[in-house]
Amino acid sequence: MAADSVEREILIEASPEVVWGVITEPEQISRWFSDEADVEGRAGADGTLTWRPGGRGGHPESDAIVPIRVVEAEPFRRFSFRWNHPEGAAPDASNSALVEFSLIEEGDGTRLRVVESGIDAVTHDEQGKARYLEDHGHGWERHLGELLDYLASKPSGAAR
Amino acid sequence: MATAVAEDDALWAAVADPTRRRVLDALLEHGEATTTTLAKGLPVTRQAVAKHLAVLNRVGLVAGRRRGREVRYAVRPERLDDAAEAMARVAAQWDRRLARIKRLAESVQAEAAIDV
Questions:
Q1: pLDDT in tens, B35-93
Q2: Which residue from A13, A21, A128 is facing B10, i.e. has the nearest CB?
Q3: Quick check: B102 contacting A, CB < 8 Å?
Q4: What is the pLDDT of residues A34-71, one digit of tens each?
Q5: Mind telling me how many Å the CA of A144 is from chain B's nearest CA?
Q6: Which long-range contacts (CB under 8 A, 24 or more apart) does A87-91 make?
Q7: Are A24 and A43 spatial neighbours (Cβ–Cβ below 8 Å)?
Q8: d(CA A15, CA A10)
Q9: Which of A36, A103, A108, B100 has the fewest Cβ atoms nearer than 10 Å?
């Protein structure tokens, strides 16, 4: 796992088939992620996620429409997508974050793991983004991990 | 006036550069160091180190102290906490989403069990 990423997981008392449906079907995506989802759960599909004013994302003024492209869709096992790339641009490591879900059967349930990486590629302001591209940065590398370790070792460290 | 979001963005941009993170690492190691000392341990010029220090200084990640003819830099840990916090926020968002996925999936599963 790259150090510019966040990894979380949860154990769900439902089969991988059921969990798969929840994370890939547009009508379900709009119940846990964006307020609206217009994307097919197949590899290569391009679509959009929309957050409405007053909706879950709390965007107060106007719709926030975020491009998404499905990268991998291996039923009941793996689902990944890139998001937050500029509208009309092809998503890659420099302009989008990658979200990877893996589903692992565990007893009668499913362990759902999510890794989001390349976060720094999409969280800058425009100036920062331009500078980032100019510098050919490749995300937070192992050094951030060291910084986070350093922080975690301090009593008041916010990092985990 | 800078908003909290804009400040966050500047912070992320500052640490997004690998060389700048190496400068930060080196500073953490040394505790305090001059531009010249830092440049010796890094595969970049003194001028490049100075430039990176200026960016880090601007967002408050490092602070310089004049000692006679030289300026000694040190990391400001409270700002590093902010950077770590930005990452923790992303993690917290995923925790919330995963919790919703869990709730949805378990209710679908429970309905399916009743249908059978």
A1: 999 999 899 999 999 999 999 998 888 999 998 888 999 988 777 766 666 667 777 78
A2: A128
A3: yes
A4: 889 999 989 999 999 988 877 765 555 677 788 999 99
A5: 7
A6: A91/A67
A7: no
A8: 13
A9: A108
Chain A residues whose CB is inside 8 A of the B61 CB are none
What order do you get walking across the sheet with A64-74 strand by strand? A6-12, A109-117, A97-106, A78-83, A64-74, A46-51, A36-38
Facing A144 at nearest CB: one of B9, B21, B77:
B21
Planar angle of CA B23, B28, B33, nearest 5 degrees: 70
* Chain B residues with beta carbon closer than 8 angstroms to that of A32: 97, 100-101, 104
Sequence-distant (6+) residues with CB within 8 A of B4 are none
Write down the mean pLDDT value for chain A.
Answer: 75
The token pair that represents A42 in the structure block: 């197949």
A16, B99 Cβ separation under 8 angstroms: no
Shortest distance, CA A151 to any CA of chain B (angstroms): 7
A93-116: average pLDDT = 92
- Chain A hits for B21, Cβ within 8 Å: 140-141, 143-144, 147
Determine the residue of chain B that is closest to A136 in CA distance: B17
First CA to last CA distance, chain B: 60
Q: Copy the structure tokens of residue A38.
A: 């217009």
SS3 content of chain A, % helix, strand, coil (to 5): 25, 35, 40
What tokens were used for A133? 């591209």
